[in-house]
Amino acid sequence: MASTEKAAGVTERTAAPQAPDDLAGLDALESAQTVRTPLRETLLRKVLPPVTAVALVLAVWQILVWAEVAPPYKLASPSDVWGEVREAWLQGTLLDYIWTSVSRGLLGFLLALAIGTPLGLLVARVSFVRAAIGPILSGLQSLPSVAWVPPAVIWLGLNDSMMYAVILLGAVPSVANGLVAGIDQIPPLFLRAGRTLGATGLRGARYIVMPAALPGYVAGLKQGWAFSWRSLMAAEIIASSPDLGVGLGQLLENGRNNSSMSQVFLAILLILCVGIAIDLLIFSPLERRVLRGRGLLAGR
Amino acid sequence: MATTMAGTAEDTATAEYAARVEHVSKSFPAPGAPGGRQLVLDDITLDVAPGEFVTLLGASGCGKSTLLNLVAGLDRPSAGTIGTDGRPALMFQEHALFPWLTAGKNIELALRLRGVGKPERRQEAERLLELVRLKDAHGKRVHELSGGMRQRVALARALAQDSRLLLMDEPFAALDAITRDVLHDELTRIWRETGLSVLFVTHNVREAVRLAQRVVLLSSRPGRIARQWTVDLAQPRRLEDAAVAELSAEITEELRGEIRRHGQH
User: Fold this and answer.
1) pLDDT tens-digit profile of A92-135?
2) CA-based R_g, chain A, Å
3) Are B152 and B106 in contact (CB under 8 A)?
4) Which of A209, B115, B239, B265 is the most exposed, fewest CB within 10 Å of its CB?
5) Hey, which residues does B243 pair with through a beta bridge?
6) Residue B103: exposed, middle, or buried by beta-carbon count in 10 A (0-12, 13-18, 19+)?
7) Position B190 confidence tier, pLDDT thresholds 50, 70, 90
8) What is the pLDDT of residue B137?
């Protein structure tokens, strides 16, 4: 054996007569180095850009207000909206508005999850079911969920169940389609490898199919949440009743009725912030974790 | 048209073969072909003795992977019988490790599916990783390993099935020449340490000669056993050994003859 140069820090093993250092040396040369990015760089790359964008939007907004491009009842100033936030906070109603909608949205989403997951499994694995409802399920995704509000009101009346019905009709197809896509995209090699290891039938579903489909499933969940939130806002804006409690959608509609542009802006801002916050706090970390574990998130 | 399983892990001492392929043919539906079917394997008869290392050599499309799939039980022969000593383990050209599990957990999954209890799984996985000389790789993610390391984890996972027969489908074809050369040494060492039977498919003549006790050459379309060579050279061998080169030249000449036959009609 010609090459016997050793990589630093690799301990020599005594076994194998055939030049053990070849292997140890190759391993040392080829192993991927994972480096953690320092905090400063994270701040610079991930926090600074969005903060800059928000600051720019605020600046343009304020300039438009100063330039009086529209009368104040059409274009509320940033300080008016901030005053609205402060007032709602001091009255203690701000968190109530948010909680009313968020609790509805999350509960509806969990229901959509409980229905969409088995439905997705059925569509993906049973060809008859796929042929029967697969196209409808994908088609439903392009139907704006606001279209379900009038029939839901007629069927169920003005109450919480009507809200949940609208959320489900919006979110279940997304969750189910995500799982179907995830299962369809499993490389056949994994299924073959699973079979040679003895993972067939239910064990195959548990140890191979479900974990392999997870990236597509999580993408479906993310979209499912977006659809839940949108459907809920549509339902809250259209169907308002004193019994329902004031969520963010009603807040928006009340703002319009009161001709209070600052309240309308406040409601839109809160709807946006909640949507972003849930995504940032729950779905993005979940997605990153799944993708990073599989090495699908290089350089990010 | 039957697949028989000869014995289980307990009575391996009495098994007379690791794999027995008798008069096996395989055809696939092909709209253009005469009779609507394309014959891929034609009357193959082949035994792999316990502890024997056999390479199956042939040009692309000669059906060697098809034969391996049949022996693995992933597909059924159109005619003939295949018997194996227990369920064989199979290693692919791609590592086929599950990316949602760490290297060690991939091995532990194979153990779990074999029915090994939780307390022993971790220990057994460590032992197998040590056997492929990846002692510290248990917690490593698949994407953190180099190509050669992945194939070694895949080998450890295949060994975790505790089969008497290891089927390998061009497992080193996607690796660079240096890594492949080193892994040949490793495979030879592990084969001698474990006493496994190996059926190794390749299109690389020197690889076949270097590793095997017996080289089986398949002709193409349909796949038939064209010729066999017993390799009586001492291990460890090197790719550049004169004897390896000489036999490789002879086999290559034969292989080229097989390929030329197809150019004539």
Assistant:
1) 888 888 999 999 999 999 999 999 998 998 898 888 989 888 88
2) 27
3) no
4) B265
5) none
6) buried
7) confident
8) 83
Does pLDDT of A11 surpass 70?
no
Strand order in the sheet with B53-57: B89-91, B165-169, B197-202, B53-57, B214-218, B225-230
H-helix segments, A43-93? 48-66, 78-91
The Cα–Cα gap between A175 and A64 comes to 41
Closest residue, chain A, to B188 (C-alpha): A18
Answer yes or no: are the C-beta atoms of B185 and B236 closer than 8 Å: yes
For residue B18, the domain's CATH number is 3.40.50.300
Q: What's the CA dihedral at B159, B161, B165, B167 to 10 degrees? A: -70
Name the residue of chain B whose CA is nearest to A30's CA.
Answer: B146
Q: Does B93 reside within a domain?
A: no
- B120 and B219 share a domain? no
Q: Which residues contact A22 (CB under 8 A, 6 or more apart)?
A: A1, A3, B182, B185
Secondary element (H or E) of residue A204: helix A201-204
Cross-chain Cβ contact B133/A20 below 8 Å: yes
Mutate to test the interface with A, among B70, B113, B144, B210 (most CBs of A within 10 A): B113
Joined tokens for residue B175: 């690796």
pLDDT of the residue at A12: 38
Could you tell me the residue range of the domain that residue B123 belongs to?
98-162
- B38 forms beta bridges with B28
Q: Residues A236-272, buried b or exposed e (16+ Cβ, 10 A)?
A: bbebbeeebbbbbbbbbbebeeeebbbbbbbbbebbe
**Candidate from B113, B145, B149 with C-beta closest to A199:** B113
Has residue A14 got a pLDDT over 90? no
What ipTM does the predicted assembly reach? Answer: 0.81
Q: Residue ranges of the domains in chain A?
A: 100-292
Classified by CATH at the fold level, domain A100-292 comes out as MetI-like fold (1.10.3720)
Contacts of B98 in chain A (CB under 8 A): 190, 193, 208, 211-212
> How distant is the alpha carbon of residue B11 from its chain centre?
23
Q: Percent of chain A having pLDDT more than 90?
A: 29
One domain, residues B72 and B169: yes
Structural contact between residues A88 and A94, judged by C-beta atoms closer than 8 angstroms: yes
Report the pLDDT value the prediction gives residue B201, as an integer from 0 to 100: 93
Residue of A18, A189, A195 lying closest to B185 (CB–CB): A18
Beta pairing class for B37-48 and B19-29? antiparallel
